[in-house]
Amino acid sequence: MGDSNENGERQYHNTNSAYVLPNDAREQDRLDTQAAAIVEMLGGAPFLAPFEGLKNASKAVDVGCGTGVATVQIANKIPSAKVYGLDISPVPPAVQKIAPGNAAWAIGNVLDVDNKESEGEACQEIFAPSGLDYVFGRMLFLGLNDWSRYFSIASRALKSGGIIEHQDLDWAFYRVASSECLSDKWEWYQAVVSGLKKAGLSTRSGSGAAQLMAEAGLEVIGTHTFEFSFVPSTKTPNSQAMGRYVQAKLLPNYPELLRKILSDSGASEEEIKRLSEQCLRDIVSEEGIHQKYTVTIARKP
Ligand SMILES: C[S@@+](CC[C@H](N)C(=O)[O-])C[C@H]1O[C@@H](n2cnc3c(N)ncnc32)[C@H](O)[C@@H]1O
């Protein structure tokens, strides 16, 4: 997979997923940098689930695994398990090459696992009822447009005692060390939220997970919230790397991301340009401005 095609355009998946971001080499580099910043934000570990209970696990999945960085970490943590990395786009061959032998890769849309025609045998095998010890999903908010269905699929596929860990963002902007929401009054923000809603995407994939997991029959055993900083602040020392990553690698993607979301909801070129300028000004308007990142962990009774 190259960085762009011969016209210099970014490369995207060609599946029925609602996912709006590219899948090229530049995107893979962004995802790996983001993964490292998340580990720092969480205090040094990529996962917060109780792994001590997973010592004899036999099967796990990293849903929407991207470059496979977390899949490899899970495979190293639970060597007894076959650990699948599932994504709508292929994992880079270089990662597949260095991954431990208990990692396995599958291509498919997690929301289509019951559709035997469109999804292959690997998906059927991964989500067979009561077979999984651990389901991990991180930063899937721009890809999944039916969260109730997602947690029901995961719940059905987990063994009794199996664990699900979901890490995701709420798509709103807050003042540092407070719950004061800054974005509700921004014009461009309202336009983007309405575009996301039209695409069936949620702006509360982080904080909304616990309730949806409970509705899917899972017992929530922990929620932890972190500040995913857009501008580094000494008040959020664990989010310094995050702020630097956002400045260097996430914000350059914003104009294209906003263009996709806003043009799908019918905004004119001029309108998109005006709203994008507002956005790029507002989201770096003060130190420590952040989105809320929630880690939710639940167990199948
Ligand atoms: C923002 S990336 C996060 C990647 C990885 N979880 C991480 O944290 O590094 C979201 C990933 O989810 C994948 N994705 C989006 N919709 C999906 C779907 N319906 N089924 C499976 N994967 C999906 C995308 O292709 C992308 O690789």
TrEMBL record:
Top-level taxonomic group: Eukaryota
Pfam families (UniProt xref): Methyltransf_23
Name of the molecule in the record: Methyltransferase domain-containing protein
Gene3D superfamilies: Vaccinia Virus protein VP39
GO molecular function: methyltransferase activity
